[in-house]
Amino acid sequence: MSSKIVALVDASVYGRSVCEHAAWIAGRLSLPVELVHVLTRPAVESADLSGSIALGARTALLTELTRLDEERSKLAQKQGRALLEDARGIVAASGVSVSERLRHGEVVEAIADLEADAEMIIVGKRGEAADFNKLHLGSNLERLARASHKPLFVASRAFKPLQRFLIAFDGGTSSLKAVDHVSRSPLLTGLEARLLMAGSPSDELKRKLEGAKAQLETAGFTVSAEVREGAPETVIAEAIEREAVDLLVMGAYGHSRIRTLLIGSTTTQMLRACKVPVLLFR
C-alpha cells in the first residue's frame, strides 16, 4: 500500500520547486513526504602513474589521492545533509509530515528501492550538473521515467498552485492509465480538466476519447475534450501556452529505445518544451 511521496532533492535551482510541489501534492493526498538526496560517485579519470615516476613518488601520490577522495566524500555528505535540512524546512512549513534520507549510489537504483511504498516520485526537470540549455534535460530524468513503476511528477522551475490540467490523450495504454489514475485520486480534484488528442484519429480512438471524458466527468471533473490536427508535440505545446494550463499529464515513453532513436520521442520533446510541471505515467 502506498504511504508516502518521494521527492529527490539536489543543489539545482529546481530544488525549492521540488519541495514546494511535494508539499502541495502531499497535502492533497494526505501523505507524508520523504526527501532523498543521492550521493553519486563522480566519474574521475584514473591517474597515470606509469613511466618515469619513482616507486616512492607513486606511493606518495596514491596516498594523497586517497586522502583527497576521502575529503571530497566527507564534503559531499555534509552538503547532502545541509540540502536535506533546508528542504525539510520548506516542506515542514506547509504542515506536511516529512522525513529525509541520504543515499549513496545511482539515482535510478535508489528509486527502485524506495518506490515500493511510494504513491509518487517527484524530481526536477534538470539536475545540478545541467547546463541550462533548454534542450538539455537532467541526465537521470529519462532513465527514471522509463524505470519507475509509479507516477513521476517532473517539477517546473517555479511553483504555483495548480488550477487547470491537460491530459495529452492518444488512446494508448499509458494515457488510459493516466485518465484512470486522475479519476480515482484526490490529487487533482476540483481542477479544470482538458483532454487533447492530436492528429487524425480513427473512429475507435475518438470513442476512447469520449470514454475518457465520461470517466472523468463521472469522477466529478469539469472536462472539455478536443481533437486537433498536427504533430502532438506542437499541438500540445501550443495549447498549454494559449490556454494557461498549469500541469501536463501524459503517458511516458510508449515505444522502445530503438524506435525512439529512429523517430524521436514525444515525451522527451514535451519535457524539453514545457514550462509547466509534467505528470508522467508508464
Write structural notes for this entry:
The protein has 282 residues and is α/β, with parallel strands linked by helices. The protein has two domains: 1-159, Rossmann fold; 162-282, HUPs (Rossmann fold), CATH 3.40.50. It is 43% helix and 20% strand. It contains nine helices and ten strands. A ten-stranded mixed beta sheet has the order 3-2-1-4-5-10-9-6-7-8, with helices on both faces. Helix 5 links the parallel strand 6 and strand 7 (192-198). Residues 43-47, 130-137 and 255-264 have low confidence and may be disordered.
Topology:
Layout: E1 4-8, H1 15-29, E2 33-39, H2 55-92, E3 98-104, H3 107-114, E4 118-124, H4 141-147, E5 152-155, E6 164-168, H5 173-184, E7 192-198, H6 203-218, E8 223-228, H7 232-242, E9 247-251, H8 257-263, H9 266-273, E10 278-281
Helix pairs in contact: 1-2, 5-6, 7-9
